[in-house]
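seq:
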Amino acid sequence: MATRLSNISVFLVLTLTLLALGYMIYQFTARKNSLPVLGEPGHTAGDFSFTNQDGQVVTRQMVDGKTTVVEYFFTTCPGICKTMNRNLQTIHETFKNDSNLVILSHTVNPETDSVPVMAAYAKTIGAQAPSWQLLTGDKYALYKAAREDYLLAVEDSANNKDFIHTEYVALVDGKRRVRGFYDATQKESIDKLAADIRQLLND
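struct:
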């Protein structure tokens, strides 16, 4: 009887040890694979109110709790924007049926990129709201969001004009925290973006 109890005790100890070890490995792997939170401690993207390609007002409240990909571009861009949006088409097609992902493409040239212009451009790249929103509005507010909220603060100082021009897009989680930056002109970076989106959607 004592031997039997001893064997049961050993079995229970081994089982608990294996469970504890498994939990430790899981926790280590989860931490290792988790995406960083970027910016100053506690940084989150703030409120916004812009107009999309359908003439509808889009606000922060409409994307709260959703994973968002944030881009800055302009419709007459002769260079990187075409490549960026061609690559974002892949992201759009992959996740367009998941209501928890939204692409927010902001114009850096709202003087030209009116709602009708954005609507026409949206058709050329297959951008369909609400999963892919092309946003225009007040230039100061657009630029402030790029610099302060999404940390996409790359300026082109040519001709002494205030002009943001970057190939990078930001990945923002449902708590409005910036989780990564990706070169939208590079397929490898877009593939990493897709993988990180899946991770956030599954968290």
